[in-house]
């Protein structure tokens, strides 16, 4: 079932994770294809967020290991991990009076030592992050004055300023209206195709995932049910098995990507 | 955010429990006079049970009878009303604010009442309990308004955490004001030193009798209002959508809390943690239904205060002010609660 | 944004001069200058009486303000303060135990007992709040609980202790700058300076601690370790301040808010600003206390709480 991408910098090797006796992830292995957009999908409680946090090194698996560049994460310092990989949590929080510029500047934290001063490289990384997310004109606005969509973009900019090659996002489109959702997805796709970033995102909308992602992973009860490009994964029987719905898969008349019509 | 739902047991568990609530309440109520009579037997010199009963039914002027009627009876009666009042006040506050940490002690209401009483004694020379109690009511009401105003400022409104911190700020502030008054007024310091810790000792029957009517009125009001309070506990949206007069009932609850906590403080000083711990004990027994929690809080609070006070005197031979006893019992419970439920309290 | 510091600094200087000049023997600014040049009479008043008092006030105020800034960042709550969270309670308990249980001269041990009590209370809070890691909310709530416990223990000791002992303990617990001298200033400086410098070096970490736990960790910060270090620094600063001047509430709560009004959100700016405001507040409380013949510790809440009320009231629409 598991299709090995030609190269992978981030890899889960038969990891199991459980809280208080209940297994959330059971003996799961897969490698994140480098330079591609991978969407993580599954019903509520299937362990997607837990898997993402394990990939980010925030949870140490009870057994198995997460490897980054071939090294087990447990053996690395938080700083070493943070320079390779950045995570945007589901609903990130920061002090409300902080400006977008200061928020984004915090993304440079892993690149600075105790006595290192703010450098031109830091400046350039922040500016690039603000430009990519189109938040340059919001730079001096405090976080509390932003709309939901602007807030999401500001946080994305913060994660980008970290200048890591691997970007993990937990439900980046939740709570956004359709147009902002499409903006975020287009941004992620652009990052992958123009900057060569590796993106892993937990998503809810199967059709949207199929349109933007290069790879899809279907998760159920902590186990991998299917993985591969959207055309392979978007099958009525797989959708039925994972989400317990009757679905018809048709082709998008414009993009020619698979569209899922769920019925029951 | 209010999260009363986290307390509600799934399925019919709470319903099947309710069948046992009536008999359990009868047992709790029956235990109160038993505990009271036992509490009267312990003290500096043990007094036999039949002497107590004889003193209560037919006073014969003997030394033992005088001790029973003038020392032990007022102390036990004060313990009963203070315990019941503070516990019910805490239950109402927890229901209305949807806040498991709400209680007259933690949210500064006791401190407000105590400060007003000290102020009245020091500055106006008031010493009649019948007058002091009105100062206690005013102080309790003022503190409640301040804490709610400060605690509900900012994003997210009045979260349990913010209310608890606002209560701590106000308590520290009032404690410092009280210190300022007492440093300049040695006479008041002497007369309130024990009271300001929270104590049941040395209250004559006349003082208990002057305060009790307000407290009993508050208890009766709380029992009568138990059903609307239960509806309030389900959240403001639900309450409004079933047609409840939200502002009116909230105000009524505030008046009840001020009445209950204010008169308890006027009698025994600021006794903390009874209002926090007892409603949680009641919830463990009867589930999330506030009608039963309020009904159980009264006897349980009375039992806890009188029992702990008497047990320390009788079994350990230490005569601690009840405020200290309750803090020693209550603070660990509070810390355990904070450890278990921290994520709900944000 | 840097201009924001000019006002507090000049205010602090003015307060310091006023405190030096005002007293039973009033001094004109010229006298203070004379003292600095070596005039003997003015030299005694300024150099041995008021000088150390001003110096201790400034340093204690700064320590409390920085400790408060740390607490508010670590606990992520604008109402948190080391004094409210059991640290003052622990210090008070340490001193009360010392006074009530030890006979003989114990005056010189009081700061040590206060410091030990504060450290133990902070350790208890951190230990009890640990449950598969720390959380800001648990730290606050456990702190309130420990505060109540130490308060009850102090009440117990004072209710049964000898009246004269109790009065000494109550006097110390009011918090004041009485009897400040250069010796006290120098050991306070020795204790607090390393912690103040270390806190300033960790300004960026303090910035990031305002984020949620997942964010903090994915930025590469070792969250629980950093929280532990910062709480330790906070305990050193608050403990040193308590040891030097007794428990002074609300300076640690108010000074960070005043610093916040002045603008910049970054702790690199906020820390020195808060320290300056802390010094101003304590100088003002001490001056007011001398006017009213009350210890400064009674006045800090009287200044602090209405301020806090107004500040929070204004923020209520955010």
Automatic annotation (TrEMBL), chain A:
Location relative to the cell: Cell membrane
Alphabetical UniProt keywords: ATP-binding, Cell membrane, Ion transport, Iron, Iron transport, Membrane, Nucleotide-binding, Transport
Any GO BP annotation: iron ion transport
Membrane protein topology class: Peripheral membrane protein
One Gene Ontology MF term: ATP binding
Main location: membrane
Record's keyword annotation contains Cell membrane: yes
Membrane-spanning intervals of the chain: none
Pfam (any one): ABC_tran
UniProt domain ABC transporter: residue ranges: 10-246
The keyword Cell membrane is assigned to this record: yes
Listed GO CC annotations: plasma membrane
Family, similarity comment: Belongs to the ABC transporter superfamily.
Protein known as: Iron-enterobactin transporter ATP-binding protein
Organism for this UniProt entry: Ancylobacter defluvii
From TrEMBL, chain C:
GO MF term list: transmembrane transporter activity
Gene Ontology BP term (one): siderophore-iron import into cell
Protein name: Iron ABC transporter permease
Gene name linked to the record: fecD
Main localization, broad class: membrane
Bilayer topology term: Multi-pass membrane protein
Lineage: Bacteria, Pseudomonadati, Pseudomonadota, Alphaproteobacteria, Hyphomicrobiales
InterPro entries documented for this protein: ABC_BtuC-like (IPR037294), ABC_transptr_permease_BtuC (IPR000522)
Keywords for the protein's UniProt record, in alphabetical order: Cell membrane, Membrane, Transmembrane, Transmembrane helix, Transport
């Amino acid at each position: 079932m598991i299709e090995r991408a030609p190269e992978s910098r981030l890899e889960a090797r038969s990891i199991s994770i459980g809280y208080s006796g209940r297994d959330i992830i059971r003996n799961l292995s897969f490698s994140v294809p480098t330079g591609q957009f991978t969407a993580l999908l599954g019903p509520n409680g299937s362990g997607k967020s837990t898997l993402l946090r394990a990939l980010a090194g925030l949870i140490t698996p009870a057994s198995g290991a997460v490897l980054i560049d071939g090294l087990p994460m447990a053996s690395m310092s938080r700083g070493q991990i943070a320079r390779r990989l950045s995570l945007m949590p589901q609903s990130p929080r920061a002090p409300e009076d902080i400006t977008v510029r200061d928020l984004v500047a915090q993304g440079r934290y892993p690149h600075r030592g105790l006595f290192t001063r703010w450098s031109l490289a830091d400046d350039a990384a922040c500016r690039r992050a603000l430009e990519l997310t189109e938040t340059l004109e919001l730079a001096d606005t405090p976080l509390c004055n932003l709309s939901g969509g602007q807030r999401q973009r500001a946080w994305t900019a913060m994660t980008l300023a970290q200048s890591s090659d691997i970007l993990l996002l937990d439900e980046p489109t939740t709570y956004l209206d359709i147009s902002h959702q499409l903006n975020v997805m287009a941004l992620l796709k652009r990052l992958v195709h123009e900057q060569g970033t590796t993106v892993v995102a937990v998503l809810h909308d199967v059709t949207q995932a199929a349109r933007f992602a290069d790879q899809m992973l279907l998760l159920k009860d902590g186990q991998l049910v299917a993985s591969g490009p959207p055309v392979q994964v978007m099958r009525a029987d797989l959708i039925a098995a994972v989400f317990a719905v009757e679905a018809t898969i048709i082709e998008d008349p414009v993009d020619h990507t698979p569209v899922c019509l769920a019925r029951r | 955010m209010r999260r009363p739902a986290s307390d509600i047991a799934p399925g019919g568990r709470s319903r099947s429990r309710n069948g046992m609530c009536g008999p359990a309440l009868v047992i709790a109520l029956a235990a109160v006079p038993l505990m009271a009579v036992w509490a009267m037997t312990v003290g500096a010199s043990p007094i036999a049970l039949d002497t107590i009963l004889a003193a209560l039914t037919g006073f014969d002027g003997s030394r033992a009878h005088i001790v029973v009627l003038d020392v032990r009876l007022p102390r036990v009666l004060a313990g009963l009303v203070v315990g019941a009042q503070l516990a019910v006040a805490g239950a109402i506050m927890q229901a209305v604010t949807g806040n498991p940490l709400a209680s007259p002690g933690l949210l500064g209401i006791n401190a407000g009442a105590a400060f007003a009483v000290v102020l009245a004694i020091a500055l106006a020379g008031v010493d009649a309990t019948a007058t002091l109690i009105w100062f206690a009511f005013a102080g309790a009401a003022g503190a409640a308004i301040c804490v709610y105003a400060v605690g509900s400022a900012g994003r997210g409104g009045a979260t349990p955490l913010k209310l608890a911190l606002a209560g701590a700020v106000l308590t520290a502030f009032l404690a410092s004001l009280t210190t300022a008054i007492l440093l300049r007024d040695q006479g008041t310091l002497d007369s309130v030193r024990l009271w300001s810790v929270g104590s049941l000792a040395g209250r004559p029957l006349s003082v208990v009798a002057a305060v009790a009517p307000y407290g009993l009125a508050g208890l009766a009001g709380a029992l009568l209002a138990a059903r609307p309070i239960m509806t309030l506990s389900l959240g403001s949206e639900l309450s409004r959508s079933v047609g409840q007069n939200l502002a009116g009932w909230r105000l009524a609850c505030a008046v009840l809390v001020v009445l209950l906590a204010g008169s308890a403080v006027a009698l025994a000083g600021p006794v903390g943690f009874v209002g926090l711990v007892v409603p949680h004990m009641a919830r463990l027994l009867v589930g999330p239904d506030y009608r039963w929690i309020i009904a159980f809080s009264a006897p349980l609070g009375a039992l806890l205060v009188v029992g702990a006070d008497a047990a320390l005197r009788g079994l350990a031979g230490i005569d601690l002010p009840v405020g200290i006893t309750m803090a020693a019992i209550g603070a660990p419970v509070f810390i355990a609660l904070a450890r278990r439920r921290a994520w709900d309290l944000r | 944004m840097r201009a924001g510091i000019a006002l507090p600094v000049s205010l602090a200087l003015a307060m310091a001069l006023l405190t030096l000049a005002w007293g039973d023997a009033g001094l004109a600014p010229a006298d203070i200058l004379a003292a600095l040049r070596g005039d003997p009479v003015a030299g005694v008043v300024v150099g041995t009486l008021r000088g150390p008092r001003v110096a201790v006030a400034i340093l204690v105020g700064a320590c409390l303000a920085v400790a408060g800034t740390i607490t508010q960042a670590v606990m992520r709550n604008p109402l948190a303060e080391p004094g409210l969270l059991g640290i003052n309670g622990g210090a008070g308990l340490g001193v009360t135990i010392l006074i009530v249980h030890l006979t003989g001269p114990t005056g010189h041990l009081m700061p040590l007992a206060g410091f030990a009590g504060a450290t133990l209370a902070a350790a208890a809070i951190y230990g009890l709040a640990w449950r598969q890691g720390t959380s800001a909310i648990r730290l606050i709530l456990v702190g309130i609980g420990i505060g109540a416990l130490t308060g009850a223990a102090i009440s117990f000791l004072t209710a049964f202790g000898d009246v004269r002992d109790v009065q000494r303990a109550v006097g110390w617990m009011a918090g004041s700058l009485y009897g400040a001298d250069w010796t006290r200033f120098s050991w306070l400086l020795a204790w607090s300076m390393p912690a103040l410098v270390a806190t300033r070096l960790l300004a960026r970490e303090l910035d990031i601690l305002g984020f949620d736990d997942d964010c903090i960790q994915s930025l590469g910060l070792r969250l629980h370790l950093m929280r532990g270090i910062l709480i330790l620094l906070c305990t050193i600063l608050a403990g040193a301040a308590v040891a030097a001047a007794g428990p002074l509430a609300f300076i640690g709560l108010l000074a960070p808010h005043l610093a916040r009004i002045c603008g910049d959100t970054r702790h690199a700016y906020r820390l020195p600003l808060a320290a300056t405001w802390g010094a101003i507040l304590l100088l003002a409380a001490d001056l007011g206390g001398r006017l009213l013949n009350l210890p400064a510790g009674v006045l800090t809440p009287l200044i602090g709480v209405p301020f806090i009320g107004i500040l929070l009231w204004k923020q209520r629409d955010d």
